[in-house]
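pinging the channel bc i need a second pair of eyes. not urgent but kinda urgent?? the chain im working w is below, pasted from the shared doc
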Amino acid sequence: VRLVESGGGQVQPGDSLKLSCAASGFSFSRYVMSWYRQAPGKAGLEWVATIRPDGSHPEYSEFVLGRFTISRNNARNALYLQMDRLTSEDTAVYYCSTRSRLNTYKGQGTQVEVSS
């Protein structure tokens, strides 16, 4: 399993960013995919959003609901996270993730910094 996130960067409050995750090494279209993040100085990962294999029923944490949109393109083995109206609280390293029956996988992460 290989997950490679991209699209992070430094933006100002109120701006938008779209993160991408390129997946390989497994049957992407059969797996639930999620985004997590880790804010600076905080231990552990915070769940952000999850999407089903067929792209239906996306779920969001209360902190991003209404601002972030998770999506996927199974033909391209790609996962996305559209982030709008960013705030400083969204500053974090963002990871895409999936899990099998035995293991949880995530990529190396992409840094998002929101500052003025």
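so The chain has a mean pLDDT of 97. and The chain has no helices and eleven strands. — does that match what u expected or am i reading it wrong
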